[in-house]
């Protein structure tokens, strides 16, 4: 039977279930204080880091960061999609799963996910046919041959061609309103400002992006002319979250002998070129830096990750960002290293110029994480001086705090002791102190080549912000783990200035809790358990999981105040920017009033904090 499962039924299933029983049937649990623990079923580990909370009806792994409610556990453990996981758990309770039917006057439903996957597969096939058959494809064929790619590699990576013109895909798959709606939902069309749609990808070599289950979830396109951008990825859609997916991981997993290591490179052309030369373990992020979620996913497939960066300042800055995201997932048995390429080279050019053996020799000699961490932390310091070694300690400790409690963390602390001469016991004592008391700013990294948004300044409000985590995610995580605190916040309208998926989800959670104040943590997670929100929920919970119950309210209120102060500063800076070069007398009455209001609010804030 088709139709959406009613949310009220999902909430009822979660209320009736005991997550401890659900997990224990599949993974034997042991009592550990108020919670239960086991070895994580989602990654290899020697000591248990997987915990189940009967109070919050929630599971979480300190090693790999997996977390969620009973439905999410069954989805991941049994490898089921959301509806089938609900059906399985409802069956264990003796319940029949109802389905909502849509009346004749109802608004059009969003395209079913299976329908979108089917569409993406058909589109990928169409792009491949265009590469073989379209009269204008010769430019694409010549380009691929010029890069030294064989027909076999083009076949293995299913390369295709998006023809020139604005409506080739639209005419093929968007012949009716439903078809156009599906194409828009899949990110394949763009809405015109004046009405109508056009193809997102035009006159480009097309690279299908497949998830771990082999389904096409997005596309990447490399332009053949002088248009910009040179590389274009699908936008985020119900199928595609760029913070989780990695180009080439599906193909790498299919190689014989398992995946001993993964080489993270910049673009999909690098991945394909490496495969052409027999290096089948390359993957690429998709228009974003490597995230902690990417790394959790990689470490579930392999025990060794090597990052490949340019050797310039931008590459070094990118390495620092990757290092910071690596630290929370570096449990025992995992390896991470950094390979810096000569100036002007990328993996594609290097492997073609020097051959695969030379590149692999460089991979073998890549800089280990521990060395890269101390190099980055010691940048610009005189480590022969007492002051320099003290500054190195000051910089390195916040990073070492982010490592999971493990043998690896102990070895890193010992290495810091050797480099600085500080007694091991002293360093261990400093690590045990609350982060607010000893959390210096991370060392300055070289400025990236492109302008980036300035990071939010750390305040005394929260451990997560001091460690460099996103305050929006932190607030969202606190709210999901402690939904009863929603009544203490101002409401979603006070956070209207925040941008991005996490901010949108934070406002959605606040709105829902205002309408249904009795929602629990597992019921909240169940509202948005399908992609892409599930990934954001897990990231948010990861930020706030270690906050004690008695501290949660003050942390959440402080974080809200921090976000509102940031909004005020941004509004004031924007207004001052717009008024720059004009005398006060030249301003309109509205502009003067707005300026007075913002300055008064800023003065009031300063008085309160003083």
What's this, in brief?
This protein is an alpha+beta fold.
Protein described:
It is a single chain. This protein is α+β, with helices and mostly antiparallel strands and 610 residues long. The chain has four domains: 7-92, Alpha-Beta Complex (DNA Primase, Chain A); 113-233, DNA primase DNAg catalytic core, N-terminal domain (Alpha-Beta Complex), CATH 3.90.980.10; 269-373, Dna Topoisomerase Vi A Subunit, Chain: A, domain 2, CATH 3.40.1360; 463-609, DNAb Helicase, Chain A. It contains 26 helices and 16 strands. The strands form four sheets. The protein has a five-stranded antiparallel β-sheet, sandwiched between helices. Helix 3 (70-78) crosses helix 4 and helix 21 packs antiparallel against helix 25. 38% of the residues are buried.
Structural class: alpha+beta
Q: Residue-averaged pLDDT, rounded?
A: 81
Task: Pick out the low-confidence regions.
Answer: 436-468
User: The CATH topology of the largest domain, please?
Assistant: DNAb Helicase, Chain A
Q: Which bin fits the share of residues in helices? A: 40-55%
Q: Let me know the largest β-sheet.
A: 5 strands, antiparallel
C-alpha termini separation: 63 Å
Number of β-strand runs: 16
Strand content: 5-15%
Shape: globular
């Amino acid at each position: 039977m088709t139709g959406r499962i009613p949310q009220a039924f999902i909430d009822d299933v979660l209320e009736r279930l005991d997550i401890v029983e659900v997990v224990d049937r599949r993974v034997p649990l042991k009592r550990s204080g108020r919670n239960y623990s086991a070895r994580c079923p989602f990654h290899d580990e020697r000591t248990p880091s997987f915990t189940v909370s009967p109070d919050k009806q929630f599971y979480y792994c300190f090693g790999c960061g997996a977390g969620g409610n009973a439905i999410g556990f069954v989805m991941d453990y049994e490898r089921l999609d959301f509806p089938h996981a609900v059906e399985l758990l409802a069956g264990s309770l003796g319940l029949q799963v109802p389905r909502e039917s849509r009346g004749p006057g109802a608004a059009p439903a969003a395209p079913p996910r299976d329908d979108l996957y089917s569409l993406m597969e058909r589109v990928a096939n169409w792009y491949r046919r265009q590469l073989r058959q379209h009269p204008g494809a010769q430019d694409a064929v010549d380009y691929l041959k010029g890069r030294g790619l064989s027909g076999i590699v083009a076949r293995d990576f299913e390369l295709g061609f998006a023809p020139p013109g604005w409506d080739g895909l639209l005419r093929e798959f968007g012949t009716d309103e439903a078809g156009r709606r599906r194409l828009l939902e899949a990110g394949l069309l763009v809405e015109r400002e004046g009405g109508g749609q056009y193809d997102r990808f035009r006159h480009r070599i097309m690279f299908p992006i497949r998830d771990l289950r082999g389904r096409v979830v997005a596309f990447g396109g490399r332009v053949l002319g002088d248009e910009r951008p040179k590389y274009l990825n699908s936008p985020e859609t119900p199928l595609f979250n760029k913070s989780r997916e990695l180009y080439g991981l599906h193909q790498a997993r299919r190689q014989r002998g398992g995946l001993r290591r993964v080489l993270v490179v910049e673009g999909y052309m690098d991945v394909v070129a490496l495969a052409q030369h027999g290096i089948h373990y390359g993957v690429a992020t998709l228009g974003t830096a490597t995230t902690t979620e990417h790394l959790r996913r990689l470490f579930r497939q392999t025990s060794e990750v090597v990052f490949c960066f340019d050797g310039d300042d931008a590459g070094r800055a990118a390495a620092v960002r990757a290092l910071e995201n690596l630290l929370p997932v570096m449990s025992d048995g995992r390896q991470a290293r950094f390979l810096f390429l000569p100036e002007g080279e990328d993996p594609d050019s290097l492997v073609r110029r020097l051959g695969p053996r030379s590149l692999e020799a460089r991979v073998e000699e890549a800089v280990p994480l521990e060395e890269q961490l101390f190099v980055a932390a010691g940048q610009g310091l005189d480590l022969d001086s007492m002051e320099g070694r003290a500054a190195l300690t000051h910089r390195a400790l916040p990073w070492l705090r982010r490592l999971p409690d493990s043998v690896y963390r102990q070895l890193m602390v010992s290495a810091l002791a050797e480099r600085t001469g500080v007694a091991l016991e002293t360093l261990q004592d400093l690590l045990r102190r609350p982060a607010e008391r000893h959390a210096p700013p991370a060392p300055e990294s070289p400025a990236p080549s492109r302008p980036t948004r300035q990071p939010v300044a750390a305040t005394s409000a929260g451990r997560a912000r001091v460690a460099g985590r996103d305050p929006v995610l932190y607030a969202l995580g606190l709210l999901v783990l402690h939904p009863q605190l929603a009544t203490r916040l101002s409401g979603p309208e006070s956070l209207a200035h925040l941008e991005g998926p996490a901010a949108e989800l934070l406002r959605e959670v606040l709105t829902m809790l205002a309408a249904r104040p009795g929602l629990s943590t597992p019921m909240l997670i169940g509202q948005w358990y399908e992609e892409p929100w599930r990934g954001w929920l897990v990231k948010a919970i990861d930020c706030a999981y270690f906050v004690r119950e008695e501290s949660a309210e003050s942390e959440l209120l402080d974080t809200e105040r921090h976000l509102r102060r940031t909004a005020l500063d941004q509004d004031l800076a924007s207004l001052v920017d717009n008024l720059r070069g004009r005398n006060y007398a030249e301003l309109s009455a509205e502009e003067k009033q707005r300026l007075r209001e913002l300055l008064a609010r800023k003065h009031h804030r300063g008085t309160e904090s003083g």
